[in-house]
Acyl carrier protein (Nitratireductor rhodophyticola), 84 residues
Amino acid sequence: MSDVVQTRIRDFIVENFLFGDDSQPLPGDLSLIESDMVDSTGILELVGFLEEGFGLTIADADIVPANLDSIDRIAAFIERKKAA
């Protein structure tokens, strides 16, 4: 998993869901949903970012916590999509 990919995802989350407040560390395995950092609308924003920023097409069936619930899971999902 690329550090560059994780950094881009982390930066997007800090900017859009934490309003630029990066004073607290954001662990890669932190659940974005359970921590109430991202809601359903936020997931749609995240999907838009991933599609545009990484040149992906994300199917509705791919929009599940197993793919999008943490920075680590998102980065792994991107790697799988790019490899396919």
Helices lie at 3-17, 40-54, 65-68, 71-83. The chain has a mean pLDDT of 94. Residues 3-16+30-83 form a domain with the Non-ribosomal Peptide Synthetase Peptidyl Carrier Protein; Chain A fold (CATH 1.10.1200.10). Residues 3-17 form the longest helix (15 residues).
